[in-house]
């Protein structure tokens, strides 16, 4: 393992056990948004379109949503220790998520992790709904390949990238990295396509493996 190693880590379903955006949509929209989820999962709409249409129906304030998730979000064990491990090894850790920036920021701050670099959907709160925008590393509005864009950026900067993720949206960027830690849907897809990966259930599992490199 080289110092020029970067860990690109998903957030929803990876750092957290559940998808926080889904919790919020269920609570503040109902089940109407799941029609858009079905369309997204079937490849009929992009992640950008899914997020815009779904969160446009949310009328709650930022604080109302943060209050709602406060005692409902479970962090996967070992994450804080993993952050400390990366720092002790001088490894760059970057969270790249299709989730929303406002709750990722709040959750990380509540964990006492105020200086972790993260990239997620930008959110603007309006009385009529929540505006959501994905931006490429160059700052351009994009609807697809958000995680892949950052993977390409890190590879072009000369990093060996370790990928940690759990979902279908992690599969494409993970294929380009040097090592994959996978759980849930990402693990199943890696096995189905015979893509080498290391399964994990918590971040202590990842630390144990990386300590041997």
Provide a descriptive summary of the structure in words.
This protein is an alpha/beta fold and 213 residues long. The chain has an eight-stranded mixed β-sheet, sandwiched between helices. It has helices at residues 20-28, 34-41, 47-55, 62-69, 79-88, 101-110, 146-156, 171-174, 184-192, 203-210, and strands at 5-9, 92-100, 117-126, 129-135, 141-142, 160-165, 179-182, 198-199. The chain is globular, with a radius of gyration of 17 Å. The chain is built from ten helices and eight strands. The mean pLDDT is 95. It starts with a strand and ends with a helix. It has a single domain (5-210), classed as Rossmann fold (3-Layer(aba) Sandwich).
Shape: globular
Q: Low-confidence stretches at least 5 residues in length (pLDDT < 50)? A: none
CATH C-level category: Alpha Beta
Distance between the termini: 6 Å
CATH architecture: 3-Layer(aba) Sandwich
Number of domains: 1
Number of helices: 10
Beta content comes to 15-25%
What is the CATH topology assignment? Rossmann fold
Radius of gyration: 17 Å
User: CATH homologous superfamily, by name?
Assistant: HAD superfamily/HAD-like
Adjacency order of strands in the biggest sheet: 5-4-3-2-1-6-7-8
Mean pLDDT: 95
Query: From the helix content, strand content and strand pairing, which structural class follows?
Result: alpha/beta
- What is the β-strand count? 8
């Amino acid at each position: 393992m080289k110092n020029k190693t970067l860990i690109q880590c998903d957030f929803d379903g990876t750092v957290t056990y559940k998808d926080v955006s889904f919790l919020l949509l269920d609570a503040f929209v109902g089940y109407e948004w799941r029609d858009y989820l079905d369309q997204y999962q079937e490849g009929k709409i992009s992640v950008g379109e899914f997020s815009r249409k779904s969160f446009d129906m949310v009328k709650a304030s930022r604080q109302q949503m943060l209050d709602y998730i406060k005692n409902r979000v479970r962090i996967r064990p070992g994450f804080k220790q993993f952050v400390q491990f990366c720092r002790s090894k001088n490894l760059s850790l970057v969270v790249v998520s299709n989730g929303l920036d406002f709750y990722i920021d709040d959750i990380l701050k509540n964990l006492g992790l105020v200086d972790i670099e993260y990239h997620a959907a930008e959110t603007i709160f309006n009385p009529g709904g929540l505006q959501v925008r994905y931006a490429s590393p160059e700052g351009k509005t994009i609807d697809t390949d958000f995680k892949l864009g950052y993977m390409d950026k890190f590879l072009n900067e000369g990093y060996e990238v370790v990928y940690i993720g759990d979902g279908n949206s992690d599969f494409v960027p993970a294929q380009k990295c040097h090592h994959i830690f996978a759980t849930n849907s990402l693990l199943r897809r890696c096995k189905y396509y015979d893509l080498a990966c290391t399964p994990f259930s918590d971040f202590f599992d990842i630390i144990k493996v990386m300590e041997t490199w």
